[in-house]
Protein backbone atom coordinates (compact mmCIF):
# COMPACT_ATOMS: atom_id res chain seq x y z
CA UNK A 1 0.00 0.00 0.00
CA UNK A 2 2.69 2.50 1.01
CA UNK A 3 4.52 2.08 -2.29
CA UNK A 4 1.85 4.31 -3.86
CA UNK A 5 2.76 7.13 -1.50
CA UNK A 6 6.52 6.71 -0.95
CA UNK A 7 9.57 5.79 -2.95
CA UNK A 8 13.14 4.93 -1.84
CA UNK A 9 15.79 7.66 -1.83
CA UNK A 10 18.91 8.64 0.07
CA UNK A 11 19.41 11.38 2.60
CA UNK A 12 22.18 14.01 2.46
CA UNK A 13 24.66 11.52 3.95
CA UNK A 14 23.87 8.68 1.56
CA UNK A 15 21.81 6.66 4.03
CA UNK A 16 18.68 4.83 2.92
CA UNK A 17 15.53 6.92 3.33
CA UNK A 18 12.21 7.51 1.62
CA UNK A 19 10.41 10.38 -0.04
CA UNK A 20 6.89 11.07 -1.26
CA UNK A 21 5.55 10.15 -4.67
CA UNK A 22 3.19 12.50 -6.48
CA UNK A 23 0.31 10.52 -4.98
CA UNK A 24 1.89 10.94 -1.56
CA UNK A 25 2.13 14.70 -2.00
CA UNK A 26 -1.54 14.85 -2.99
CA UNK A 27 -2.55 12.70 -0.01
CA UNK A 28 -0.69 14.89 2.48
CA UNK A 29 -2.08 18.03 0.84
CA UNK A 30 -5.59 16.58 1.19
CA UNK A 31 -5.00 15.93 4.90
CA UNK A 32 -3.80 19.52 5.36
CA UNK A 33 -6.97 20.82 3.67
CA UNK A 34 -9.14 18.60 5.88
CA UNK A 35 -7.40 19.80 9.03
CA UNK A 36 -7.79 23.47 8.08
CA UNK A 37 -11.48 22.89 7.35
CA UNK A 38 -11.85 21.12 10.69
CA UNK A 39 -10.22 24.05 12.44
CA UNK A 40 -12.95 26.32 11.03
CA UNK A 41 -15.62 24.07 12.49
CA UNK A 42 -14.10 23.66 15.93
CA UNK A 43 -15.15 27.07 17.21
CA UNK A 44 -18.13 26.86 19.64
CA UNK A 45 -21.43 27.14 17.79
CA UNK A 46 -22.47 30.20 19.74
CA UNK A 47 -19.38 32.06 18.49
CA UNK A 48 -19.40 30.73 14.93
CA UNK A 49 -20.64 33.68 12.88
CA UNK A 50 -19.76 34.17 9.23
CA UNK A 51 -17.55 37.14 10.01
CA UNK A 52 -15.58 35.28 12.68
CA UNK A 53 -15.14 32.18 10.54
CA UNK A 54 -13.90 34.16 7.55
CA UNK A 55 -11.61 36.23 9.74
CA UNK A 56 -10.33 33.12 11.47
CA UNK A 57 -9.48 31.55 8.13
CA UNK A 58 -7.68 34.67 6.93
CA UNK A 59 -5.65 35.16 10.10
CA UNK A 60 -4.82 31.47 10.46
CA UNK A 61 -3.74 31.26 6.82
CA UNK A 62 -1.65 34.41 7.20
CA UNK A 63 0.04 33.06 10.33
CA UNK A 64 0.78 29.73 8.61
CA UNK A 65 2.18 31.57 5.59
CA UNK A 66 4.40 33.75 7.77
CA UNK A 67 5.48 30.71 9.76
CA UNK A 68 6.41 28.91 6.54
CA UNK A 69 8.33 31.85 5.07
CA UNK A 70 10.21 32.60 8.29
CA UNK A 71 11.04 28.90 8.74
CA UNK A 72 13.11 29.25 5.57
CA UNK A 73 15.07 32.19 7.03
CA UNK A 74 17.62 30.35 9.13
CA UNK A 75 20.28 31.76 11.40
CA UNK A 76 21.70 28.27 11.94
CA UNK A 77 20.93 24.93 10.31
CA UNK A 78 21.96 21.81 12.22
CA UNK A 79 23.34 18.81 10.28
CA UNK A 80 20.79 16.24 11.48
CA UNK A 81 17.78 18.51 11.16
CA UNK A 82 16.49 21.47 13.13
CA UNK A 83 17.30 25.14 12.69
CA UNK A 84 17.14 28.51 14.42
CA UNK A 85 14.64 30.47 12.36
CA UNK A 86 13.22 33.98 12.24
CA UNK A 87 10.51 33.47 14.91
CA UNK A 88 8.65 30.85 12.85
CA UNK A 89 7.26 29.02 15.91
CA UNK A 90 5.71 32.23 17.22
CA UNK A 91 3.42 32.65 14.22
CA UNK A 92 1.97 29.17 14.74
CA UNK A 93 1.63 29.65 18.50
CA UNK A 94 -0.34 32.84 17.78
CA UNK A 95 -3.15 30.80 16.20
CA UNK A 96 -3.75 28.93 19.44
CA UNK A 97 -3.44 32.17 21.42
CA UNK A 98 -6.07 33.81 19.24
CA UNK A 99 -8.56 30.97 18.87
CA UNK A 100 -7.90 28.42 21.61
CA UNK A 101 -6.24 25.00 21.84
CA UNK A 102 -8.59 23.02 19.58
CA UNK A 103 -8.12 25.31 16.63
CA UNK A 104 -4.49 25.95 17.56
CA UNK A 105 -3.47 22.30 17.69
CA UNK A 106 -5.44 21.36 14.57
CA UNK A 107 -3.89 24.16 12.54
CA UNK A 108 -0.43 23.48 13.96
CA UNK A 109 -0.70 19.82 12.90
CA UNK A 110 -1.56 21.03 9.39
CA UNK A 111 1.49 23.30 9.53
CA UNK A 112 3.64 20.36 10.57
CA UNK A 113 2.48 18.38 7.56
CA UNK A 114 3.22 21.39 5.37
CA UNK A 115 6.76 21.46 6.78
CA UNK A 116 7.04 17.77 5.93
CA UNK A 117 6.09 18.16 2.28
CA UNK A 118 8.62 21.00 1.93
CA UNK A 119 11.40 18.51 2.78
CA UNK A 120 9.83 15.07 2.43
CA UNK A 121 12.83 12.86 3.19
CA UNK A 122 12.15 10.47 6.07
CA UNK A 123 13.07 7.08 7.48
CA UNK A 124 9.95 5.50 9.00
CA UNK A 125 6.28 6.43 9.35
CA UNK A 126 6.48 6.68 13.18
CA UNK A 127 9.42 9.10 12.77
CA UNK A 128 7.31 11.27 10.44
CA UNK A 129 4.41 11.29 12.91
CA UNK A 130 6.57 12.35 15.85
CA UNK A 131 8.75 14.88 14.01
CA UNK A 132 5.96 16.65 12.13
CA UNK A 133 2.28 16.36 13.18
CA UNK A 134 3.06 15.78 16.86
CA UNK A 135 6.08 18.06 17.30
CA UNK A 136 4.66 21.00 15.36
CA UNK A 137 1.13 20.27 16.58
CA UNK A 138 2.37 20.94 20.11
CA UNK A 139 2.78 24.60 19.15
CA UNK A 140 -1.01 24.87 19.34
CA UNK A 141 -1.11 24.28 23.09
CA UNK A 142 -0.45 28.00 23.46
CA UNK A 143 -4.23 28.23 23.35
CA UNK A 144 -4.50 26.90 26.91
CA UNK A 145 -2.97 30.17 28.10
CA UNK A 146 -5.03 32.60 26.05
CA UNK A 147 -6.92 33.93 29.09
CA UNK A 148 -3.93 34.12 31.41
CA UNK A 149 -1.93 37.20 32.32
CA UNK A 150 1.12 37.27 30.02
CA UNK A 151 -0.65 34.45 28.22
CA UNK A 152 1.21 34.85 24.95
CA UNK A 153 4.65 34.45 26.51
CA UNK A 154 3.52 31.61 28.79
CA UNK A 155 1.68 29.91 25.94
CA UNK A 156 4.62 30.29 23.59
CA UNK A 157 7.02 28.78 26.13
CA UNK A 158 4.65 25.88 26.76
CA UNK A 159 4.34 25.36 23.00
CA UNK A 160 8.11 25.28 22.55
CA UNK A 161 8.49 22.84 25.45
CA UNK A 162 5.84 20.66 23.82
CA UNK A 163 7.76 20.62 20.57
CA UNK A 164 10.99 20.05 22.51
CA UNK A 165 9.46 16.95 24.15
CA UNK A 166 8.58 15.35 20.82
CA UNK A 167 11.91 16.33 19.27
CA UNK A 168 13.65 14.74 22.28
CA UNK A 169 11.50 11.61 21.89
CA UNK A 170 12.35 11.36 18.20
CA UNK A 171 16.05 11.80 18.93
CA UNK A 172 15.89 9.08 21.55
CA UNK A 173 14.08 6.56 19.36
CA UNK A 174 15.35 7.21 15.84
CA UNK A 175 18.67 9.03 16.08
CA UNK A 176 20.19 7.71 19.30
CA UNK A 177 22.92 5.87 17.39
CA UNK A 178 24.69 9.21 16.82
CA UNK A 179 25.17 9.69 20.57
CA UNK A 180 28.21 7.39 20.52
CA UNK A 181 30.00 9.78 18.15
CA UNK A 182 29.94 12.42 20.89
CA UNK A 183 30.57 10.01 23.81
CA UNK A 184 27.21 10.88 25.32
CA UNK A 185 24.26 8.89 26.60
CA UNK A 186 21.31 8.78 24.23
CA UNK A 187 18.99 10.90 26.44
CA UNK A 188 21.67 13.54 27.01
CA UNK A 189 22.52 13.63 23.30
CA UNK A 190 18.89 14.13 22.31
CA UNK A 191 18.31 16.78 24.98
CA UNK A 192 21.47 18.67 23.99
CA UNK A 193 21.03 18.44 20.24
CA UNK A 194 17.43 19.65 20.21
CA UNK A 195 18.17 22.38 22.75
CA UNK A 196 20.78 23.80 20.35
CA UNK A 197 18.14 25.09 17.95
CA UNK A 198 14.89 25.31 19.95
CA UNK A 199 16.10 27.18 23.03
CA UNK A 200 18.02 30.01 21.28
CA UNK A 201 15.04 30.78 19.06
CA UNK A 202 12.71 30.64 22.08
CA UNK A 203 14.96 33.00 24.03
CA UNK A 204 15.14 35.52 21.20
CA UNK A 205 11.38 35.35 20.70
CA UNK A 206 10.59 35.91 24.38
CA UNK A 207 12.98 38.86 24.37
CA UNK A 208 11.14 40.34 21.39
CA UNK A 209 7.75 39.70 23.01
CA UNK A 210 8.89 41.56 26.13
CA UNK A 211 9.40 44.80 24.17
CA UNK A 212 6.56 47.25 24.71
CA UNK A 213 6.03 48.12 20.99
CA UNK A 214 5.81 44.42 20.10
CA UNK A 215 3.41 43.68 22.95
CA UNK A 216 1.16 46.58 21.98
CA UNK A 217 1.16 45.65 18.29
CA UNK A 218 0.32 42.00 18.96
CA UNK A 219 -2.40 43.04 21.41
CA UNK A 220 -4.05 45.16 18.71
CA UNK A 221 -3.74 42.37 16.15
CA UNK A 222 -5.35 39.93 18.57
CA UNK A 223 -8.33 42.20 19.09
CA UNK A 224 -8.80 42.47 15.33
CA UNK A 225 -8.38 38.70 14.92
CA UNK A 226 -10.96 37.61 17.48
CA UNK A 227 -13.68 40.25 17.37
CA UNK A 228 -16.62 40.05 14.94
CA UNK A 229 -16.51 42.53 12.11
CA UNK A 230 -19.63 44.32 13.34
CA UNK A 231 -17.90 45.29 16.58
CA UNK A 232 -15.47 48.10 17.03
CA UNK A 233 -12.05 47.06 18.20
CA UNK A 234 -11.32 47.91 21.80
CA UNK A 235 -9.34 51.07 22.26
Task: Please give a structural write-up.
Helix content is 63%, strand content 7%. With 235 residues, it is mainly alpha-helical. Helix 3 (88-99) packs across helix 6. The longest helix has 24 residues, at 151-174. The chain is globular, with a radius of gyration of 19 Å. It starts with 5 loop residues before the first strand and ends in a 9-residue tail after the last helix. The model is unreliable at 231-235 (pLDDT under 50).
Short descriptors:
235 residues, two-stranded antiparallel sheet, 7% strand, disordered C terminus, mainly alpha, globular, 63% helix, two-stranded antiparallel ribbon
Major β-sheet, in short? 2 strands, antiparallel
Q: Counting H and I runs of at least 4 residues, what is the number of helices? A: 8
Mean pLDDT: 89
State the helical fraction: 55-70%
Q: Which overall shape is indicated by the principal axes computed on the Cα atoms?
A: globular
| Distance from first to last alpha carbon | 56 Å
H-E string? EEHHEEHHHHHH
Radius of gyration, Cα only, in angstroms?
19 Å
> How much strand?
5-15%
Uncertain spans: 231-235
Determine the structural class based on helices, strands and strand pairing.
mainly alpha
Widest sheet, order of strands: 1-2
Total number of strands: 4
